[in-house]
Amino acid sequence: MAGAVSLQPEVLILDEPIAQLAPMHADKIYAVLRELNEKYGKTIIVIEHHTEYFVDFCKHVTLMKDGQIQWTLPTKEALCRVDELESCNIFPTQVTIVAHRMQQAGQFETGIPYRSVKGEPHVVFSNLNLEIYKGEKIAMIGSNGAGKSTLMKMLVGLLKPTAGDVLLNGKSIREQKPETLSRQISMVYQNPEDMFIKDSIGGDIAYAMEARGIPESKKRTAELLERFRLTEFRDWDGRLLSGGQMQRDSLAIGIGLNPGILLLDEPAANLDIATRKEIMRTLDDLKSITETVVIATHDLQLVCEWADRIAVLCNGQVVADGKRVEIFSNQEIVKTVGIRPPEIFSMGQALCPEALCYTIDEFMNCFEGRTTAYENT
User: Fold this and answer.
1) Strand partners for 65
2) Residues paired with 321 in a beta bridge
3) How far is residue 363's CA from residue 352's CA, in Å, rounded to a whole number?
4) Cβ burial 205-241 (10 Å sphere, 16+ → b, else e)
5) In this predicted model, what pLDDT tens digit does every residue of 92-133 receive, in sequence order?
6) Contact, 92 vs 110, CB < 8 A?
7) Residue pair 189/195 in contact by the 8 Å Cβ criterion
8) Torsion on CA atoms 15, 17, 23, 24, rounded to nearest 10
9) Given Cys at both, which of 36, 53, 190, 288 links 266, Cβ 3.0 to 4.6 Å?
10) What are residue 71's phi and psi, to 5 degrees?
11) Strand pairing category for 167-168 and 171-172
12) Are the C-beta atoms of 47 and 17 separated by less than 8 Å?
């Protein structure tokens, strides 16, 4: 961004400027954009899937569909068109969706709230200790640089700890050959294209199996292509796929060897909301294939909808480890690490301190039948 601004343009166009950023860093990016707009008179155009940032920072929203501009409206008016947006696989903020549903159910007396509630070798870890148990669905969260990706690379043996050890089923991974390790634990990289080494999807999925002489690798490849709805693209280069297709392809590659443990680094980064939901459904489908799944992500909505357990990394240590309520009710952790609960959780807390709602459905179930009057904010 600094490089672009140094040319002193009148118009800045940013494509997903906060993808892969923690909420704290995303806020800083949009704060800079607001300053460029309000103080220096720059025109800012963002392509953005995170609708909560529309509310706080954007003055107008343009909807595109089938290569055409459908409309350009003031942000508040645009986000009121919940049904139209959802029909285009664009999802307004959780608070807006809840307001829309409550209005339809006759539970609003007045108004709808629109604002979101909101030198020396580098030592990454110090006295880090984390145990992962068979069958768990764990989300690792923390700010950028907390070490989530580094930890995953250590777990699969791509990086070696200078002290301490990584044990897999009670055995040090130092003692295990790479081919043995890869059959037990697999990692899907943050950027799917990093996993593409052949010139076709089918070739990428089959590669690890063929390299290890696994019987019926062709049959297994065909089954994975079918499972992840990629059969018609089997001869395509993976780099030519859409974001969601690339993620499905990388997942197929990751589970090709039937690992008991699957590590996913930012599986929903750079994806629109509809594709993120598709990836969530795919993750649920993996239950029959792999026993233990660990995700590193900044997407706390995904965390709350999917994870059984949350581990929070900060300053090279696990500073919190537990279920949703244990993590998000700990204000010291939330403030220190800079994580932000889903806005639907914050809204529920504002209405009723005892409410613990992490999804829209949980919110609707919690407040079903209550008539609440809201003032416009």
Assistant:
1) 68
2) 311
3) 11
4) bbbbbeeeeeeebeebbbebbebbebeebbebebeeb
5) 777 777 777 776 665 544 333 454 444 556 678 888 889 999
6) no
7) yes
8) -170
9) 190
10) -170, 160
11) antiparallel
12) no
As given in the structure block, the two tokens for residue 55 are: 């509310």
Structure token digits, residue 81: 């068109």
Are 149 and 188 in contact by the 8 Å Cβ rule? The answer is no
| pTM summary value | 0.65
136: left (phi over 0), alpha (psi -120 to 50) or beta: beta
DSSP 112: -
Give yes or no for a contact between 370 and 107, defined as CB atoms under 8 angstroms apart.
yes
Give residue-wise pLDDT tens across range 131-190: 999 989 999 998 877 888 889 998 988 888 888 899 998 899 888 887 788 888 989 888
Residue with tokens 């690490």: 337
Within its chain, how far is the Cα of 274 from the centroid?
12
CA distance linking residue 327 with residue 262, whole number of Å: 23
> Which residues make beta-bridge pairs with 158?
none
Burial class for 158, CB neighbours closer than 10 Å (0-12, 13-18, 19+) = exposed
- Angle (CA) 371 75 36, round 5°: 130
